Amino acid sequence: MSELQLSILKTLGAKGSIPDSSKEFPSTASQTVLAALNSLAARSMITYKTKESEVYTLTKEAEDIISHGSHEYRLLNKVLESLEGLKISEVDSIMGKNGKVAQGRAFKNGWIGKDGDKLVPKVSKDDSKVHDITADQLKQIQTTGTLSNKKDLNELKKRKLIVQSKVHTYAISKAIQLQL
Questions:
Q1: Which residues, other chains included, contact 43 with Cβ-Cβ below 8 Å and sequence gap of 6+?
Q2: pLDDT tens track for 29-61
Q3: Given its phi and psi angles, is residue 160 left (phi above 0), alpha (psi -120 to 50 degrees) or beta?
Q4: Burial level of 111, CB count in 10 A (0-12/13-18/19+)?
Q5: pTM for this structure?
Q6: CATH fold of the domain at 3-53+167-174
Q7: CA 27, 29, 32 angle in degrees (round to 5)?
Q8: How many Cβ atoms are within 10 Å of 26's Cβ, its own excluded?
Q9: Torsion-angle region of residue 54: left (phi > 0), alpha (psi -120 to 50) or beta?
């Protein structure tokens, strides 16, 4: 019998049941837990139920946004720094491949406006309208694995800032024949 199987049986003996295997055995891979559970279930020692949930993980770009702010927030800072406004033609050279996204989101948020061939701020840095919602949403996903608003999740998926994955956990209980 493996160490994991013994650990499962000892935990069941002490607690009576394990409602969530990921909380009880956080450093053990789901497939490893499943193999141990199948072995114990084949000997009629335990019963278990599989729980499947969706979890979102951050891409490298999203981790960069958490550290340095969203593209739109960084663009706003660049526009605020430039005394005479930022030339639209310079956006891509300053922001890189995310220049268009930054510009579109900053316009949508009402943070910047267009004056001829320049981008000008519509808000000040201290304005209450200026809140980096994208970075906040990504921080929440980093902590909880999801957001309550599905529309926001879909928007972040479209921007390729998060990746969806399925996680399997198990609710484990003693079988009738198990005597500890």
A1: none
A2: 999 999 999 999 998 899 999 999 999 999 999
A3: left
A4: buried
A5: 0.74
A6: Arc Repressor Mutant, subunit A (1.10.10)
A7: 125
A8: 8
A9: beta
